[in-house]
Amino acid sequence: MAYTVKGVVVKAKNEPVSVENIIVPDPGPGEAVVDILTCGVCHTDLHYKEGGIGDEFPYLLGHEATGRVAAVGEGVTNVAVGDKVILNWRAVCGECRACKKGQLQYCFNTHNATQKMTLEDGTELSPALGIGAFAEKTLVAAGQCTKIDDVSDEQNAAVGLLGCGVMAGIGAAINTGEVKRGETVAVIGCGGVGAAAIAGAALAGATTIVAVDLDERKLTKAKDLGATHTVNSKETDAVEEIKEATGGFGADVVIDAVGRPETYKQAFYARDLAGRVVLVGVPTPEMQLELPLLDVFGHGGALKSSWYGDCLPERDFPMLVELYRQGRLDLDAFVTERIGLDEIEPAFEKMAAGDVLRSVVEL
């Protein structure tokens, strides 16, 4: 039998979101229905609302979520009813060329639920990142459910952020940037993803971590998460300040968590010779980058893009939850406020103004 639940929908580009009755079908083969417990308000959801990702409206927003499995379809073996899960948008296929090379974190054919959730009038919904978790229940591919050890109701909001932004930032440092003990790191842009990259660099053992932003509030939070130096790039030259903090050489790893040509150039020129640049901020389609090819050659090193922190959810989520339980990763620091389904529109406004790291919906 299908479920009728409340969910947050945007029906057209730049329209305000609305709480609607949505129909969630019983899970089919390889699918699962999940009772949503918490879901972070991520910038990606705002991109969907603004039409920056696609035009397959209406969208059921939300993807950065914890939940409990309510029902599973035929053939599902990775999770069972009652399991606590973090939802992910990389349900690996096991068959594509990346998977067959043993690089599951780059799976080129990640999959979602086959069936569609709908509005009450039968209009099909496009779930954000194949998840759609601003809802009391959602339908996903079973592979999008990563089982974790149970945590308290109070902790659900924090661990759910591993589903997207926090994992993207931590992974950009640890997985993509391969930060090593004793290295120097700079992070440009200290919103949710950039702040997580700082926490990831600290976890990896970086001894110098330079946080760069235009907002003093974000720089203060960056210090709480492990930054050893802060640079307000509205007031000073970020490249020169990063070099000064790293003995005049530049950082071993520079992470661009903004994703603009200007910040990428800062990252490129703020690294040491043979250093690594990691782009984890998402550019928009019209952006163009120009760099002298001789400088690209002369600096050596590596220019990398980080997709979802190059994470493998079944490997990384449980590990990071355990570090959180041990007090070695402060996920609570990312939760600025806890809200209800009817407070998402104001949460978008707070996010755009830089007033929050994460608003988290609790159901």
TrEMBL record:
Keyword Metal-binding: yes
Segments forming domain Enoyl reductase (ER): 18-361
Keyword entries, A-Z: Metal-binding, Oxidoreductase, Zinc
Keyword Metal-binding assigned: yes
Record Gene3D superfamilies: Medium-chain alcohol dehydrogenases, catalytic domain, NAD(P)-binding Rossmann-like Domain
Any GO MF annotation of the entry: mycothiol-dependent formaldehyde dehydrogenase activity
Signal sequence, start to end: none
InterPro entries listed in its UniProt record: ADH-like_C, ADH-like_N, ADH_Zn_CS, ER, GroES-like_sf, MycoS_dep_FDH, NAD(P)-bd_dom_sf
Any single Pfam family the record assigns to this protein: ADH_zinc_N
Assigned EC number: 1.1.1.306
PROSITE patterns, per the entry: ADH_ZINC
Cofactor(s) in the UniProt record: Zn(2+)
Membrane-crossing segments per the record: none
Xref: NCBIfam families: mycoS_dep_FDH
Family: Belongs to the zinc-containing alcohol dehydrogenase family.
Protein name per Swiss-Prot or TrEMBL: S-(Hydroxymethyl)mycothiol dehydrogenase
